[in-house]
Amino acid sequence: MKFWWPHNEAIIATLMAYVITKDVKYASWHKQVHDWSYQHFPDPTHGEWFGYLDRTGRVTSTAKGNYWKGPFHLPRMQLTCSQLLASEQV
User: Fold this and answer.
1) Going by C-beta distance under 8 Å and a sequence separation of 6 or more, which residues neighbour residue 26?
2) 3-state SS, residue 61
3) How far is CA 86 from the centre of its chain?
């Protein structure tokens, strides 16, 4: 299974690692996880991200809100990355 929140956290962590170290391997990892996540998690019809995918990226549950999936990780990831990019001019 692929869950939305570890991907959100990985996007932040890899960008933060690059900003701190300037090691291009972290930029590469960031691009890889960012591109895969934005290709598979977003719902192009109704917005927001699906929370649960299988290993191939197919949606396994269309629920976007439940006891565990709430509106925290996605906007936090987007805001944090936006702030990192703005402050570092990466």
Assistant:
1) 14, 15, 17, 18
2) strand
3) 18
